[in-house]
């Protein structure tokens, strides 16, 4: 089983890449965390945002496997505690499907991504910059795994 983070945006600042990679490296071999970066559609003067979001959505969905479980990160999704995420992680591991976490660009995810999603999850009611979401998500996945293994990283 793989955990795949599919994000809109490339060429992140070094601190974003370093933060994400730090947690991705900590994941165990049986639960690797992989990153797929989708190019953000160019937003020139007077952009057609719905069309650009659809283009990004098409590229995101092309990266999702037919049998993958999809979790869309949405401000309006269900909030999960870290313990709830750990329970979800155990459940997903029992199912054995790869899990794809979808993170949109500055304008969010298009409707097609939300429709393809098996679940919608909100990391926070706050609006987070999409580069920061990569780090927060990677850290929370590592923390959830540490809970399932009674690893000392998580001290509630």
Automatic annotation (TrEMBL):
GO (cellular component) term, any one: cytoplasm
- Which residue spans traverse the membrane? none
* Binding positions (S-adenosyl-L-methionine): 73, 104, 123-128
Catalytic activity entry: pseudouridine(1915) in 23S rRNA + S-adenosyl-L-methionine = N(3)-methylpseudouridine(1915) in 23S rRNA + S-adenosyl-L-homocysteine + H(+)
Principal place where this protein is found?
cytoplasm
Which UniProt keyword terms apply here?
Cytoplasm, Methyltransferase, rRNA processing, S-adenosyl-L-methionine, Transferase
Which molecular function terms from Gene Ontology are attached?
rRNA (pseudouridine-N3-)-methyltransferase activity
One of its Pfam families is SPOUT_MTase
Superkingdom, natural source: Bacteria
CDD domains given for it?
A: RlmH-like (cd18081)
Mind telling me which SUPFAM superfamilies this protein's record contains? alpha/beta knot (SSF75217)
Q: What is its EC number?
A: 2.1.1.177
**Locations listed in the record:** Cytoplasm
Q: Which InterPro entries match?
A: Alpha/beta_knot_MTases, RlmH-like, tRNA_m1G_MTases_N
NCBIfam families recorded for this chain? PRK00103.1-4, tRNA_RlmH_YbeA
Q: What does this protein do?
A: Specifically methylates the pseudouridine at position 1915 (m3Psi1915) in 23S rRNA.
Indicate the family of this protein.
Belongs to the RNA methyltransferase RlmH family.
**Assembly with partners or alone:** Homodimer.
Q: What is this protein called?
A: Ribosomal RNA large subunit methyltransferase H
Question: What is the originating organism of this protein?
Answer: Marinobacter halophilus
Report which gene this protein is encoded by.
rlmH
């Amino acid at each position: 089983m793989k955990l795949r983070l599919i994000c809109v945006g490339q060429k992140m600042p070094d601190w974003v890449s370093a933060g994400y990679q730090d947690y991705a490296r900590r994941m165990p071999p049986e639960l690797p965390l992989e990153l797929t970066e989708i190019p953000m559609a160019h937003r020139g003067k007077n952009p057609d945002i719905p069309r650009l979001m659809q283009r990004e959505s098409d590229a995101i969905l092309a990266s999702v496997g037919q049998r993958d479980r999809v979790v869309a990160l949405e401000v309006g999704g269900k909030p999960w505690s870290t313990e709830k995420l750990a329970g979800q992680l155990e459940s997903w591991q029992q199912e054995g499907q790869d899990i794809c976490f979808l993170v949109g660009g500055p304008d969010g995810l298009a409707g097609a991504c939300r429709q393809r999603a098996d679940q919608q999850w909100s990391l926070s009611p706050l609006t987070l910059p999409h580069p920061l979401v990569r780090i927060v998500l990677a850290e929370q996945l590592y923390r959830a795994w540490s809970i399932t293994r009674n690893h000392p990283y998580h001290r509630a």
